[in-house]
Design a protein that fits this description.
The protein contains eleven helices and eleven strands. By secondary structure, it is α/β, with parallel strands linked by helices. The longest helix is centred in the middle third of the chain and has 20 residues.
Length: about 260
């Protein structure tokens, strides 16, 4: 375990008790095998005695994260054991996201521009989210014939009112930062370019509190929807083998423009 790390997709360092974790894999922090492996390295740091809080953000101008690496998903289509591989990936990323969600320390995210799909799901594991006015939030998975697979629906239904969740999920439309703040998807709407500064200030304040008290508060305020998360994985794997999903993924990877990442 190291509290100073630089990888292909993530880097982190400890600053005043806050483990600051940056995403930096171009074009927009897609969550694939490399990012997952480095997130798994991050998990043991969550219980290090010197780590009193965690802050997650992106160093890329393009945004926080465009979501799952769908090109990698498409590349495996038809291979022997492909669905088993998809399920194994889901099991691993759920384990990481659950660890972030249930960490005994306070966790913060600063987000800007693209916060789509799996990137939104990563954000949802954090306790407090600070958004730049440029941020847009979207769950586009139904357009591909699948559902979000990294925990979005159970975490959203835990944290938000049902009508807001259904609108975000079933329409595939993106929410702007102001609407996301009003709906309670994010806790703070920062001034332009100031989301990281505000999230860092909040994290350093929270890091001053006793860890045992924080952990106890989170047990009550943020229960893990375990059964729903397990059901989500089952439903995702049942849908991903359907022919319309294959066709939709093919269209996605054939599009060389930025359009696949836009609302």
């Amino acid at each position: 375990m190291s509290l100073a790390f630089t990888g292909e997709a993530l880097s982190w360092a400890l600053e005043q008790g806050v483990l600051e974790v940056s995403l930096h894999r171009a074009p927009c922090n897609e969550l694939g095998v490399a990012a997952l492996a480095e997130l798994e390295l991050l998990v043991p740091c969550l219980t290090h005695p010197d780590v009193r809080a965690l802050l997650l953000f992106s160093r890329l101008d393009s945004g926080f994260s465009a979501g799952a690496d769908l090109r990698a998903l498409h590349a495996g289509l038809g291979a022997e054991g492909w669905v088993d591989g998809v399920r194994a990936f889901l099991d691993r990323i759920h384990a990481v996201f659950d660890a972030l969600d249930q960490a005994g320390i306070p966790t913060f995210a600063a987000v800007h521009r693209v916060v789509f799909g799996g990137g939104l799901e990563l954000m949802l594991t954090c306790d407090v989210v600070v958004a730049d006015p440029s941020a847009r939030f979207c769950l586009p998975e139904l357009r591909l014939g699948i559902i979000p697979g990294f925990g979005a629906i159970p975490r959203l239904t835990r944290d938000l009112a049902g009508p807001v969740v259904r609108d975000l999920l079933l329409t595939g439309r993106s929410l702007g930062a102001r609407r996301a703040y009003e709906a309670g998807l994010v806790a703070h709407l920062a001034s332009p370019g100031k989301s990281l500064d505000l999230a860092r200030s909040l994290a350093r304040q929270a890091a001053k509190f006793p860890v045992a008290a924080t952990a106890a508060a989170k047990l009550l305020a943020k229960p893990l929807p375990r059964a729903a998360l397990d059901r989500e994985k089952d439903l995702f794997c049942a849908l991903v083998v359907r022919p319309e999903v294959t066709a939709a993924l093919g269209r996605f990877v054939a599009d060389a423009s930025t359009r696949p990442y836009l609302p």
